[in-house]
Structures are given as structure tokens and as C-alpha cells.
Amino acid sequence: MQSGPKGTEQDLVGQCSLCGLVAELFDLPGKTDQYCLACSADVATAILLTAEIDAATLAGRSTEAMVCEFVEISRRMLDRSQSAA
After folding, report:
1. Could you tell me where the beta strands, DSSP code E, fall in 7-60?
2. Given Cys at both, which of 9, 43, 61, 70 links 2, Cβ 3.0 to 4.6 Å?
3. Prediction pTM value
4. pLDDT digits (tens, 9 = 90+) for 34-53
5. Taking the domains of the chain in order of start, what are their residue ranges?
6. By the 8 A CB rule, do 30 and 41 touch?
């Protein structure tokens, strides 16, 4: 599968930067790596959770639930990356 303006087509299938799966890849704003669908969702969620945890901490609110979710996502990403090795 290819995309981009005529003459600048890019192959959207490649190896995920995190898990190594050969699949359709996605770019995330501010990231140079490309990820498969599952990894891109987890990376994006981890980025958002980090910002929300920081904001909640600064505001003096509880972060326990967000930290638990972040740990679970991190564990899932680590498992995927280690299984690629």
C-alpha cells in the first residue's frame, strides 16, 4: 500500500520500530519512528498519560489509576519489544 502526493509515494508497510512486526506503519506527531497499529496506539496513550499524570500531580490530584494504566501499557510494550528480539 502506498500514499502521498503523486511522485512522493511512500510504502506504508514496513517493520515496526517497537515490536518488529512487518505491517502497515503509522507516524505519530513528534516521533521519528514508525509503529504498527497496536504499538502506535500504546505509544500515543503512554504520551497522553504522561502529560495527564504530570498535570494531576501539579494540581495535587490523585494519579493512582493513571499510573496503573501507564504501568500496564508499558508492560505490554516491553513484552512486544522483547518478543521481537
Report:
1. 10-11, 13-15, 22-24, 26-27, 34-35
2. 9
3. 0.81
4. 999 999 999 999 999 999 99
5. 2-84
6. no
51, containing H or E segment: helix 37-59
H/E segment holding residue 3: strand 2-3
pLDDT in the model for residue 84: 74
What is each CA distance from 75 to 4, 7, 9, 46, in whole angstroms?
A: 34, 41, 35, 11
44 CB contacts (<8 Å, ≥6 apart)? 28
Q: What percentage of the chain has pLDDT greater than the value 70?
A: 86
All three cell numbers of 44, joined, read 500515543
Distance CA 1, CA 12 (A): 6
> One-letter amino acid identity for 72?
E
Q: Is 85 exposed, middle or buried (0-12, 13-18, 19+ CB in 10 A)?
A: exposed
- The cell numbers describing 4, all together, are 502521498
